[in-house]
Amino acid sequence: MNLSPNRFLAGLRANQPQIGLWLSLSSPFSTEAVAGAGFDWALIDMEHSPNELGSVLAQLQALAPYPTTAIVRPDWNDAVKVKRLLDIGAPGLLFPMVQTPNEAAAAVSATRYPPRGLRGVSVATRANAFGRVTDYFDRIEQETAVLVQVETRAAIDLAVEIGKVDGVDGVFFGPADIGADIGILGQPMHADVWQVILPAARRLVTAGIPVGTLVSDPVFARKLIAEEKFTFVACGSDLGILARGADNLLKTMRA
Fold first, then answer.
1. What is the tally of structural domains in the chain?
2. Considering just the CA atoms, what is the radius of gyration of the chain in Å?
3. Domain-located, residue 55
4. Which residues are designated catalytic?
5. Whole-angstrom Cα distance, residue 255 to residue 253?
6. Can you give the CATH number for the domain in which 131 is found?
7. Domain range spanning residue 106?
8. Residue 2 included in any domain
9. Tens digits of per-residue pLDDT, 157-181?
10. pTM surpassing 0.85?
């Protein structure tokens, strides 16, 4: 058995837009419900959702029959947690709050086996079909997506340097935290937030580094892809779909 190619990574490398969905409900049942929609990628969030390794594993299993690539956001740049997420088969990781090129390099190192990194070795994990994938150790480095999230003005100033770190596959802008950092808390779509993000994003695009983000407005998400050349954009979340759908349904009935 050979290692399956990472469709999301192949898309990034071919400069093909990858449309994503955020998964915050921490449920394999809800994840399976949206998996058949056909998103290019889905982000299983451990930073701002009550996910733990067991619920992440169950969601990876729910997504496995579908072409949607699972990306996991650990709650921190923790090499031990990264090792465990990779062993249960996470095809890619989004590292939160990366502030410097050194922190980006540490994230990459956590995903690499020695001598190129510090990931611990187990010969039989879910990631290699319990030892059945014969080329796993040869190819996993090329097939694991390493994405880093810049979330402050200081990190944005270093965005190109962060993106150029060997092994980083893309830079992701966190508009909510960037907004908080510049004094606009709770308004990730505020024009001033995007006046900070877009110039840095354009520098990254010019440097050939894939750029991504999460927004809740699909019209704006399409603009980022079509006009600003963002490569991987999440355009909503399972939590948002459920909450807003419930709100709108009740509003319609009461009207």
1. 1
2. 18
3. yes
4. 48
5. 5
6. 3.20.20.60
7. 7-254
8. no
9. 999 999 999 999 999 999 999 999 9
10. yes
